[in-house]
Each structure stands twice: as structure tokens, then as C-alpha cells.
Amino acid sequence: MSATEADYYRLRTEWLRYKSHLVDSLTGLPTLPGVVDDVRRLLEGRGAVELLYIDLGRSGWHETKVGWGAYDRAVREFAAVVASLRAQGALAPDDLVCLQAARGDRFLFFLPADADAPGPASPLLARLRAVIDEPSARGRLGNVRLAAAVVALRHDPMARAERAISQAVADATAACFEERLGGEERRRAELQRLIDHREVRSVFHPILSLADGKLVGHEALTRPLGDVPFDSVEELFAFAESTDLLIDFERVCRDTAIRSVAGVAPRGLLFLNASAHAMEDPDWRSGKVAEALARSGLTPGEVVVEVTERVAILRHDAFQETLRSFKERGYRVAVDDMGAGYSSLQSLAAIEPDFLKFDVSLVRDIDKSSIKRSLLESLKGLADKIKARVIAEGIERVEERDTLVSLGIELGQGFLFHREDGL
């Protein structure tokens, strides 16, 4: 390669690196450095601009809970929501939308405003929140929450616009953090209240044989009593996992489930969800859980402890000893949310689970997707190799059940068999 060619490729590499900082490849949106000049012109031309700052994740627990791949999809879906609002006219042609940084989750909306009139940021924020609260959006976005702040910018010919823009973003970041912190404090107080007053109830979803409908067991799910500042039960547990209250909260949920299952007939196996931290609760080792089970007419051998695939795979070395002690006391183990993207045959073989629960994302509309069927067949082969029974979650239609049966899936649960009141 000649010196000229080397210089060309070096310059091209530097240009591509520079461009990657100006445009986010995940969403296709520009980043703040790429729109500063446009904002400056907008500010000089209109005299006033409103900045709507949205922190999509609200707090770090969301990404660490679902994994970066799933969270990337949520960020991309939110960008698609923004694009749809622009197509519907909720965003004007002059409105500028960007990310604060490439691969980030903080969206900036620079909206032309009149200096002496209410700005457009608040109505747009209300529209965005309404859209992501729709059931169809929840299915795509998961449980993301919007922490937001609005900052007004006014043109000052004595000040450099670029610095004013930078300061506005800093002010919005600080305001958004304060809102988020206040929300975290309110949610922590509510979580503590649920623990102190044991204000949760258990609902039991049946797990059936797909071939003949025979009952195999029930999964115990927790529902808070009364209104709580969480959008979903999943968000409640995700928040609990980010605090030092997790073991106490899961203990309340577990005790409630064990006490309540005494009234379930026929009962079968009891499936209890447990986080990695909650499995370290000394109540398991001391025998208190076994004593509570005995009062409800159960033995450890009739209990299946469910752990998520994310924990089972990413922490399998440290986790094996914990799971081994559970099995020695007679409990069975299920790996939940299979198919979420963490599967490792070596790790699962070391854990030796009794059950594998396939994630609802694999089951939904499987009768219409050859890709899902192929993927499920592969996971079924994995389950057979490690001698684990398979449970398909989230079955809602007869066609899904029939397809699962044709693929040799033994067990299932979902709204097709049981639907809670109000769901």
C-alpha cells in the first residue's frame, strides 16, 4: 500500500469515527453535536426555544434487569414512537429531535416557542406519555419510564448560543435527576410500606399438560394491594432488586404464597419465583420455609424454585453451590425466561434444572412464525439433552397450543387456561 493510499484510509477511518459521534446508528437520530448549529439558527430566528429533555431509562436498573440487547430494542422503539408522532403532525417540521450522545437513551427535543406564550414542550410530553402507556406500546417498550424536564432558552445577542444550549442541557439533566430522585424516594417508601404491612396477595396460574389438560402445578404470582406508584408488577420487582429491601420483600411474597396455596385445590407442584439475592435468605437454610410449607401441607419436594435465565447463565459459577444446596434439601429448580438471549448449554448442564420455562416472546404467534418454531425446536433439543421438562409460557390461543404440542412441548401456562380478573 502506497503512502497516499494509507493516508486516504486513515482519513476515511477518522471521518467514519467522527460521523459515528454525530449520528446514532441504533435510532438513526442525530446527536447533540450534530444539531447545535441548527438549534442556534432556530434560537436566533425565533427568539425562544423550549428544550424537552427525556431520560428514557429513568434509572439504571431497567437495562441491568432486561439486558442491553432488550434495552436497545426499547430505545429503538421509542425513537419509532417519536417518528410516528412526527408523521401524525404532533411534531412540526422545525422541531429538532436528537440524542444527547450516540448509543444513549436521553432524548432532546428543541421546539420553537414564542417568548411570551406557553411553549409546546408540555403538551408533547403528555402525548408521549399517553402513547407509551398504551398496551401495544408496552408490549414493544417493556416497562420504560420517562423522567423529563423542560427548560426555556431565549436568544441573547450578548451570549454565545452554543454555550447557552450546553447550559440548558446541563440544567435539564439536573432537573431530571431531581425528579427521578424524588420518584425513587416515593417508590422506596411505598415498597417499605408493602413490606411492613404485608400488603400483597398471591394469585396462582395453573401449569398444565398440553396434550391432555392434566394439572401439573401452579405458579405463584404476587400482586400488591391498593394503588402503588409502579406501572406494573415487573417494575415493582425490578425496583425492589435495585434496593436493599429485596430479600425482605421477596420473603413477604413467598410467605404469602405459601400460606395462600393451602386453599388451592387441586394444587400440584408450587412454583415460586426467587431472585439470586433472595435465594440467599437465611430462612431457606434455617428451615423456616420448610416449616411454613408443612403448615400448608407441602414438602420441599413439591416446590419448584424458579430463577431467571439471565441469573442462571451470567452467575452460574457462583450460583451452582446455592442451587446444589436447594436440591439437597429436596427442592426442584426451574430456569425461567429461556430464549431471552443468554442460553448456554454448558451453563445449564452444570445447573441441572428440572424445568425450563420458555419465554412468552417465543410462544406468542408461534403458529405464524417458522423462525420461532425452529428456535423452539432447538431449545427443546437442549432441554432433552439436560433431561429437563419444558414449560411454554404465555399461551393465549388454541393455535399456539396446538403448534406447541406438534413440536413436542409437554407443559404450558397462559391466559388460554386461566385469566385473572381485571387482566
Give the beta-strand count. Answer: 12
Question: What is the count of distinct domains?
Answer: 2
Oligomer class: single chain
CATH superfamily of the largest domain: EAL domain
Report what the structure shows.
The strands form two sheets. The chain has an eight-stranded mixed beta barrel with strand order 5-6-7-8-9-10-11-12. Strand 2 and strand 3 form a beta hairpin. The model has no long low-confidence stretch (mean pLDDT 85). Helix 13 packs parallel to helix 14 (345-351). The longest helix has 37 residues, at 161-197. It has helices at 3-22, 32-46, 61-66, 68-87, 121-132, 135-141, 161-197, 233-241, 246-260, 282-286, 288-295, 309-314, 316-328, 345-351, 360-363, 370-385, 398-406; strands at 48-55, 96-99, 106-112, 147-154, 200-209, 215-224, 269-273, 303-308, 332-338, 355-358, 389-392, 411-412. The protein has two domains: 3-183, Alpha-Beta Plaits, CATH 3.30.70; 198-412, TIM Barrel. It has 423 residues and is α/β, with parallel strands linked by helices. The chain is built from 17 helices and twelve strands. Helices cover 49% and strands 18% of the residues.
List the helices and strands and how they pair.
Layout: H1 3-22, H2 32-46, E1 48-55, H3 61-66, H4 68-87, E2 96-99, E3 106-112, H5 121-132, H6 135-141, E4 147-154, H7 161-197, E5 200-209, E6 215-224, H8 233-241, H9 246-260, E7 269-273, H10 282-286, H11 288-295, E8 303-308, H12 309-314, H13 316-328, E9 332-338, H14 345-351, E10 355-358, H15 360-363, H16 370-385, E11 389-392, H17 398-406, E12 411-412
Parallel strand pairs: 6-7, 7-8, 8-9, 9-10, 10-11, 11-12
Antiparallel strand pairs: 1-3, 1-4, 2-3, 5-6, 5-12
Helix pairs in contact: 13-14
